[in-house]
């Protein structure tokens, strides 16, 4: 997920980019309610997590600064972009960091795609099982 925040400005009566001092806490829970991510970030950032349980996940973002929120008239806008699946990987960055050849990088991409397909199939199996159980 990528996010950025904006605080309400009373003078201009509009949302302005947040000051760097604003902190955001991001917490992610899996379908069983188990916390898979709990971290403090800045006024904008990127968070990642790997899901091991199929189903609906809960993503909670909240500001760590009541003082700034009060200063902004209590209004905080959060822009949130969520990407799911293996396409979220930055392969050029992975190649540079791990010093991979072009062939090794392509193999990594294919393995990630296979893993994503398996996760999707497992998720569909669980969904079908839940639907049958609920009928």
From TrEMBL:
Ranges for domain GOLD come to 1-84
Instruction: Write the record's keywords in alphabetical order, separated by commas.
Output: Endoplasmic reticulum, Membrane, Signal, Transmembrane, Transmembrane helix
Membrane topology, from the record: Single-pass type I membrane protein
Instruction: Classify the main location.
Output: endoplasmic reticulum
Q: Which GO terms describe its cellular component?
A: endoplasmic reticulum membrane
Does the keyword Zinc feature in the UniProt annotation?
no
Q: Where in the cell is it found?
A: Endoplasmic reticulum membrane; Membrane
Q: Which InterPro entries match?
A: Emp24-like (IPR015720), GOLD_dom (IPR009038)
A Pfam family (short name) is: EMP24_GP25L
Q: Which PROSITE patterns match?
A: GOLD (PS50866)
Similarity annotation: Belongs to the EMP24/GP25L family.
Full protein name: TMED4 protein
Species in which this protein is naturally found: Aramus guarauna
């Amino acid at each position: 997920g990528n996010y950025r925040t904006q605080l309400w400005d009373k003078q201009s009566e509009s949302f302005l980019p947040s000051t760097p001092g604003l902190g955001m806490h991001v917490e992610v829970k899996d379908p069983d309610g188990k916390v898979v991510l709990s971290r403090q970030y800045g006024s904008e950032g990127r968070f990642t997590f790997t899901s091991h349980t199929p189903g609906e996940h809960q993503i909670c973002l909240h500001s760590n600064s009541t003082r700034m929120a009060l200063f902004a008239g209590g209004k905080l806008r959060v822009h949130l972009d969520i990407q799911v699946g293996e396409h979220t990987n930055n392969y050029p960055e992975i190649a540079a960091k791990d010093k991979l050849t072009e062939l090794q990088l392509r193999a990594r991409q294919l393995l990630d795609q296979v893993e994503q397909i398996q996760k999707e199939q497992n998720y569909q199996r669980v969904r079908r099982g839940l639907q049958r159980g609920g009928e």
